[in-house]
Model the fold of this input.
Amino acid sequence: MGDISGGDALLFLTDEQLRQGIEAMFFAYRGFTAAPDAILEGLDYGRAHHRALHFIARVPGMNVKRLLEILGVTKQSLNRVLRTLIEDGLVESRVGTSDKRERHLFLTETGADLESRLSDAQRRQMRAAYRHAGPDAVAGFRQVLEAMMEPGMRATYASLRATGA
Amino acid sequence: MGDISGGDALLFLTDEQLRQGIEAMFFAYRGFTAAPDAILEGLDYGRAHHRALHFIARVPGMNVKRLLEILGVTKQSLNRVLRTLIEDGLVESRVGTSDKRERHLFLTETGADLESRLSDAQRRQMRAAYRHAGPDAVAGFRQVLEAMMEPGMRATYASLRATGA
DNA sequence: TTGGAATGTCAACAAGGCTGACATATGATG
DNA sequence: CATCATATGTCAGCCTTGTTGACATTCCAA
Done:
C-alpha cells in the first residue's frame, strides 16, 4: 500500500487491467447472490427481503432510518418489503423506548431461521472462494472493495465492522 | 495459494470474516456502479443498456446468443434493450455471413462515444480504488472474484480475457 | 425434406426501484 | 404552550428490467 513510485509498478493500472477488474466484479456478483437467490426462489421473498433480514440480524433493534441509510433505498421501497416481513411474522417492530417516534426492528424466531438459512448458504459460497484464493488474496480483496465504496458507505461499513467481533 | 495447513491460518474463514466480506461486496458494488449510473441518469438508458454496450464494444461482431449467455438474461429482456439501442442508432445489427440466421452486433460511432464515456467513468472509479489499494491487493482481489464466479461464468470471463490484450 | 437452431416479437406479469403527497405521533425549542 | 422538525407509515402512480409462454421466420444440417 502507499505511494506508487513509477515504471512497471503501474502496469496494474492499464485500461486493460481495469477492464478485466470491471468484468470480474460483474461476473462475481452473480455468483455472490446465486446461493441465497436459489433459496428465495419459491418463497414469496426476493433479494430486497434478504438484505433487510441481514442487517436486522446484524444490528438487532436498529431503527428504520438507519436501515434506510444502509440499504440506500427510499422509505416507500423499504416499507413495502418490511410490511410483508412484519405481517408474515419474520420481523418485529417495537416502539422506541427513549424516542417513541422510532421503531426498532428485531427478527422473530421464524425470521432468524430464514436469515440463518440465507446467511449459511452465502457464507458457504464465500468460504469456498476464500479458501480457494487464500488469506493473502482475501486481504487484498477486502482492501480493494473498501477503496471502491463511496465515503458514506465506507463509514457505514466500518461502523458495522466495529459493532461486530 | 494452495492448501491451508491449519491453526491460525484459518482465521480468515471465520463466520465473522465471511460476513464482513459479504457486506464489503454489497457496499462496494454500489460504488462500482455509481459513476456510470450518474451518466445514464437523464439519458433514456439504464444499466442494462450499459452492459450491452460494454460487451458489444468488447467483442465487436458478437452474435445475440453469445451476448445472452454473457449477460445471463432472457432474449426477450435483452431484445427490449437491444431494440432501443438499434433504433437510436447506437448499435448496428448485421446478418451473419456464414450463418445468416445470426445477427452480429457492432457499435456505431455514436454508440462507441457513449460506451467510451461510460467506460471512462467506471475505469476512473476503479483506477482510484486500485491505486489506493496497491498491486498486491489488486492481485488478491482478482483471485477472490474469480473464485466466486459460477463455473460457466468463469469460463466466459477467461475467454474474454484471452480475447483481450 | 424435415427437424432443430437462432432470432425477433407480442402479451402479460412481477419485483423492486422511484417521486409526490399526505397523515400521525412525538421530540425539541422558543 | 405553540410551533416546527423528525420518524414513520401509506396511497397512488410510474419506470426499468427481469420473467414465461406462444408464435413466426429464416436457415443450417442430416
Notes: Residues 63-65, 75-76, 79, 83, 96, 99, 101-103 of chain A lie near DNA strand D (CB under 10 Å from a C1'). Residues 134-165 of chain A form one domain. Helices of chain A lie at 15-40, 47-58, 64-71, 75-87, 109-133, 135-148, 151-163.
